[in-house]
């Protein structure tokens, strides 16, 4: 079994300033340990000019293989056999894996889609492989705690596929807090080696006696808090505190997160000992890069009422690339949007907290497999204020018996941490309620160094949150540098050309129609869920059986709405749409995109967002391209001089 070729601490020196390590005491972890010194480790994402002499060159480091990190060869072989072969570690993996193998507590903060899951899974499995069969266990050796049911399944799938490919006799189980106790008991019999759960799932096991606290103290070797920045915001604080009190001192703790926040600090203090803190450094004076640079972020200023016509123009005139993930702040809004788009022949599926879990997982699988292009996700937890959510809830209370009422799943969290495959565009139809929420939504594109685009529709009420996001992501040295630019491909003309049809159609999507569609979808999905349960246990690959993007309207779209007449589309928009299609075709043929983690190709090549000007005509390129200081759709927003690199 390989050992790390360089001592991790030495290797980490290239990135870090190591602070003094305090002496630990034997015993159990205190619930509130005193402030501990931390090793501040900066994970390099960009080459730097100078290097530490004894650390080797940055280029050499970038070339480091998994083998050199000291991982079990079975794991390395398994990575090469995955659907998308993984051969080289990402920056966070390069630094985190050796430290974890050394037994250090680690806090890893790295941008969305940067490979944090494997950064902890690989060394975790390596350690369990080594320990396997050495000691009789009465409880799992590792807990992986995640904030949502969806993430629980995703991590479980990842871990199971690695275990299968390595052919080792380890067992992982996923657990939900809403499982019947008998199922929990069955899942934990054995016991499994790895438990993946929300904190509430573990808390329920403890409170019902399915898991005994003394057994945890005897068996637990590794605790992982994945998406740590979300765990507390999902209301798991008490559950986590209860678990912390049981952790044996020897238990290694790992905390993975995309953003830094007070919640993460709180968790660090609660759970970790002398952790190595791995963070992405500031690059070019830009604050810690939380959103990958390869994601171009845009916004469109619009009134609330005009959001429908704007999104219609973006999708119908093909000004954004597929696949598209659209976020709303309420379930009703998701259905309103679905029905509205259907009238124009645009099919989409809706994902939300009231759907049965099987359906939600299946929708995700289908979307990831490319069976449909538009997914509308209701992210109620991110409603700007309760009012938006409550509108939906009021509608619920008025429902007649005709409409099934479903409890919202408190562990629904599909928008965060989920590894959506090949989502090119994320649209915030509604702005999220917090800047952290924005980061997690936008992080669903641009994963694994793929490119992506986000477009936020911002009403006057939402400008404040846009400003918050800008200040979170902004460039400290140049406050004027644009992090989120006005979207350049949508002209006022294009919007106006669709206005009449959009407004007319929007009137037909009444509250009653929305409520009926929502109820019908729920009925369909409850039926689906039952079928899915049995069928997909036997045929896990049979994705096509049930389609989730079926039309919910009674009537087929009218021909004049399905196809936008040519005369309505101005020449600039036609050109923009053509360029988006060409860019898409070019990317579709680019194998590096599918393999992920290959560096981007030449700057600007064929990217309409870099070379196109809605104002100055399509032929622009750099010269005639989007004019600096030009105007966006509504004409009020100046482009700043220094746009952040697109
Ligand atoms: N070394 C690698 N080479 C290529 N692809 C990788 C590598 N490591 C991970 N990936 C892929 O990158 C994608 C994103 O990884 P992952 O979900 O772990 O990101 P993350 O950092 O946890 O993001 P988030 O914070 O949004 O949860 C996944 O599809 C994963 O399979």
UniProtKB/TrEMBL annotation:
<feature type="region of interest" description="Disordered">
    <location>
        <begin position="584"/>
        <end position="646"/>
    </location>
</feature>
<dbReference type="InterPro" id="IPR014001">
    <property type="entry name" value="Helicase_ATP-bd"/>
</dbReference>
<keyword id="KW-0547">Nucleotide-binding</keyword>
<dbReference type="GO" id="GO:0016787">
    <property type="term" value="F:hydrolase activity"/>
</dbReference>
<dbReference type="GO" id="GO:0005829">
    <property type="term" value="C:cytosol"/>
</dbReference>
<feature type="domain" description="Helicase ATP-binding">
    <location>
        <begin position="97"/>
        <end position="278"/>
    </location>
</feature>
<dbReference type="InterPro" id="IPR027417">
    <property type="entry name" value="P-loop_NTPase"/>
</dbReference>
<keyword id="KW-0694">RNA-binding</keyword>
<feature type="short sequence motif" description="Q motif">
    <location>
        <begin position="64"/>
        <end position="94"/>
    </location>
</feature>
<dbReference type="InterPro" id="IPR001650">
    <property type="entry name" value="Helicase_C-like"/>
</dbReference>
<feature type="region of interest" description="Disordered">
    <location>
        <begin position="1"/>
        <end position="67"/>
    </location>
</feature>
<feature type="domain" description="DEAD-box RNA helicase Q">
    <location>
        <begin position="64"/>
        <end position="94"/>
    </location>
</feature>
<dbReference type="Pfam" id="PF00271">
    <property type="entry name" value="Helicase_C"/>
</dbReference>
<dbReference type="GO" id="GO:0003723">
    <property type="term" value="F:RNA binding"/>
</dbReference>
<keyword id="KW-0378">Hydrolase</keyword>
<protein>
    <recommendedName>
        <fullName>RNA helicase</fullName>
        <ecNumber>3.6.4.13</ecNumber>
    </recommendedName>
</protein>
<dbReference type="Pfam" id="PF00270">
    <property type="entry name" value="DEAD"/>
</dbReference>
<feature type="compositionally biased region" description="Acidic residues">
    <location>
        <begin position="46"/>
        <end position="65"/>
    </location>
</feature>
<dbReference type="InterPro" id="IPR014014">
    <property type="entry name" value="RNA_helicase_DEAD_Q_motif"/>
</dbReference>
<feature type="domain" description="Helicase C-terminal">
    <location>
        <begin position="307"/>
        <end position="495"/>
    </location>
</feature>
<keyword id="KW-0067">ATP-binding</keyword>
<dbReference type="InterPro" id="IPR011545">
    <property type="entry name" value="DEAD/DEAH_box_helicase_dom"/>
</dbReference>
<feature type="compositionally biased region" description="Basic residues">
    <location>
        <begin position="620"/>
        <end position="630"/>
    </location>
</feature>
<dbReference type="InterPro" id="IPR050079">
    <property type="entry name" value="DEAD_box_RNA_helicase"/>
</dbReference>
<dbReference type="GO" id="GO:0005524">
    <property type="term" value="F:ATP binding"/>
</dbReference>
<comment type="similarity">
    <text>Belongs to the DEAD box helicase family. DDX56/DBP9 subfamily.</text>
</comment>
<keyword id="KW-0347">Helicase</keyword>
<dbReference type="GO" id="GO:0003724">
    <property type="term" value="F:RNA helicase activity"/>
</dbReference>
<feature type="compositionally biased region" description="Basic and acidic residues">
    <location>
        <begin position="36"/>
        <end position="45"/>
    </location>
</feature>
């Amino acid at each position: 079994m390989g050992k790390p070729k360089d001592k991790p601490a030495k290797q980490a020196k290239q990135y870090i300033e190591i602070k003094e390590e305090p002496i630990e005491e034997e015993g159990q972890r205190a619930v509130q340990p005193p402030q501990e010194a931390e090793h501040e480790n900066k994970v390099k994402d960009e080459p730097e000019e100078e290097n530490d002499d004894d650390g080797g060159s940055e280029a050499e480091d970038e070339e480091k293989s998994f083998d050199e990190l000291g991982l079990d060869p079975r794991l390395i072989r398994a990575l090469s056999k995955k659907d998308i072969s993984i051969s080289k570690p990402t920056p966070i993996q390069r630094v985190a894996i050796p430290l974890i193998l050394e037994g250090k507590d680690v806090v890893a903060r790295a941008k969305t889609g940067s490979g944090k899951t494997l950064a902890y899974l690989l060394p975790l499995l390596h350690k369990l492989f080594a320990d396997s069969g050495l000691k009789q266990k009465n409880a799992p050796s590792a807990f992986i705690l995640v904030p949502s049911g969806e993430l629980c399944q995703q991590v479980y799938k990842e871990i199971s596929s690695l275990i299968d490919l390595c052919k080792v006799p380890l067992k992982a189980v996923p657990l939900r807090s809403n499982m019947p106790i008998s199922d929990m008991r069955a899942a934990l019999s054995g016991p499994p080696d790895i438990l993946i759960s929300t904190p509430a799932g573990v808390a329920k096991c403890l409170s019902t006696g399915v898991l005994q606290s003394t057994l945890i103290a005897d068996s637990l070797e590794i605790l992982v808090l994945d998406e740590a920045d979300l765990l507390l915001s999902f209301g798991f604080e008490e559950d986590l505190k209860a678990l912390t009190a049981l952790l044996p001192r020897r238990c290694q703790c790992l905390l993975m997160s995309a953003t830094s926040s007070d919640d993460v600090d709180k968790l660090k203090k609660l759970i970790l000992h002398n952790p190595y803190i791995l963070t992405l450094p500031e690059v070019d004076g830009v604050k810690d890069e939380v959103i990958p640079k390869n994601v171009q972020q845009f916004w469109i200023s619009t009134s609330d009422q005009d959001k429908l016509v704007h999104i219609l123009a973006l999708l119908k005139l093909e000004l954004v690339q597929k696949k598209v993930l659209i976020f709303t702040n309420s379930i009703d809004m998701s259905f309103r949007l679905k029905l509205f788009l259907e009238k124009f022949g645009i099919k989409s599926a809706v994902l939300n907290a009231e759907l049965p879990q099987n359906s939600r997982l299946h929708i995700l699988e289908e979307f990831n497999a490319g069976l449909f292009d538009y997914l509308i996700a209701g992210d109620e937890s991110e409603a700007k204020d309760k009012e938006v959510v409550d509108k939906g809830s009021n509608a619920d209370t008025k429902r007649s018996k005709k409409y099934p009422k479903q409890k919202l799943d408190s562990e629904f969290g599909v928008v965060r941490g989920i590894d959506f495959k090949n989502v090119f565009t994320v649209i915030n139809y509604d702005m999220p309620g917090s800047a952290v929420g924005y980061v997690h939504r936008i992080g669903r594109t641009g994963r694994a160094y793929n490119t992506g685009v986000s477009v936020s529709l911002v009403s006057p009420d939402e400008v404040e949150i846009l400003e918050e996001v800008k200040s979170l992501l902004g460039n400290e040295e140049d406050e004027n540098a644009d992090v989120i630019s006005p979207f350049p491909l949508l002209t006022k003309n294009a919007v106006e050309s669709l206005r009449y049809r959009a407004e007319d159609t929007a009137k037909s999507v009444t509250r009653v129609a929305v409520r009926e569609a929502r109820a019908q979808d729920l009925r369909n999905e409850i039926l689906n869920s039952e079928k899915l349960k049995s069928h997909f246990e036997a045929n896990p690959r049979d994705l096509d059986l049930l389609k989730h993007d079926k039309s919910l309207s009674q009537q087929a779209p009218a021909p004049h709405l399905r196809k936008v007449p040519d005369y309505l589309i101005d020449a600039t928009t036609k050109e923009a749409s053509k360029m988006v299609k060409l860019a898409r075709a070019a990317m579709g043929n680019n194998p590096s995109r599918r393999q992920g983690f290959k560096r981007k190709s030449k700057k600007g090549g064929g990217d309409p967002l870099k070379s196109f000007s809605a104002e100055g005509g399509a032929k622009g390129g750099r010269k005639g391209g989007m004019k600096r200081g030009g105007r966006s759709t509504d004409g009020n927003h100046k482009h700043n001089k220094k746009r952040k690199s697109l």
